[in-house]
């Protein structure tokens, strides 16, 4: 079971399902782990300053993809959870807990949590990010951002939708056996784009552009959805403070890059 999942994480799993299960060849390892997963979601009442799921339409209320969803209502006079079942497995689990139906007042209090949470988010992604980035392949912003970007790959390691991997062959010390293993990789690693003749995204600017345009623009063409769910983790964990919402906003404000 995954317990305490936020709506952005449910949305990220939906993205990963498309990547690993929705293609001509399914990923057997992913499918095996995914099959019996029981997911308990918690709707966000206190989003963080780097969150922007409301503008990506993925949260903060857990709306789908869960077995059970909880909403915590807490104030000076009351503290309770409103639970919803999203699947037969979730319904069976709820039945075992023998809850009582929520009163109208309790339901209204939960609805207030859902309504107020978006107002507490610190970030917003422009709604036309895909169009903005599709017109910005040669934008000078990528060179400016690359002056700060360390190409450390933190943003891809914390991103719940990043899935890139590479295959390595690992021989044992006796030279008797070689294993072919899949290792998680990042498009910020120079070798990730190694083709005949060397890496084709040699510069940091090229790698940053690849990451942001894939997430918010070409992912739609490839998988029918955005690759960003608005969780804000890449903002939180970037050691130099690069902010995906700020990057799109800057390009949008100055589409020709005239400064
Ligand atoms: S790109 Fe950033 S905000 Fe979007 S899903 Fe990945 S980590 Fe979260
Ligand atoms: S976390 Fe920040 S510095 Fe590191 S690769 Fe991502 S954008 Fe660049």
- Counted by DSSP, the helix tally is 11
The low-pLDDT segments are none
Q: Supply the helix-strand structural class.
A: alpha/beta
Overall average residue pLDDT:
96
Task: Evaluate the radius of gyration.
Answer: 21 Å
Ligands bound to this protein structure: iron/sulfur cluster
Number of domains: 2
- Shape from CA axes? globular
C-alpha termini separation = 50 Å
**Share of β-strand residues:** 15-25%
Could you give a quick summary of the protein structure above?
With 259 residues, this protein is an alpha/beta fold. The protein folds into two domains: 2-120, no CATH class; 129-253, no CATH class.
Give the topology, please.
Elements: E1 2-5, H1 7-20, H2 28-35, E2 39-42, H3 53-56, E3 68-74, E4 79-85, H4 88-97, H5 104-116, H6 129-134, H7 141-148, H8 154-158, E5 165-171, E6 178-184, E7 194-195, E8 198-199, H9 204-223, H10 233-237, H11 244-253
The chain binds iron/sulfur cluster (SF4) (2 copies).
The site of one iron/sulfur cluster has 13 residues, from helix 10.
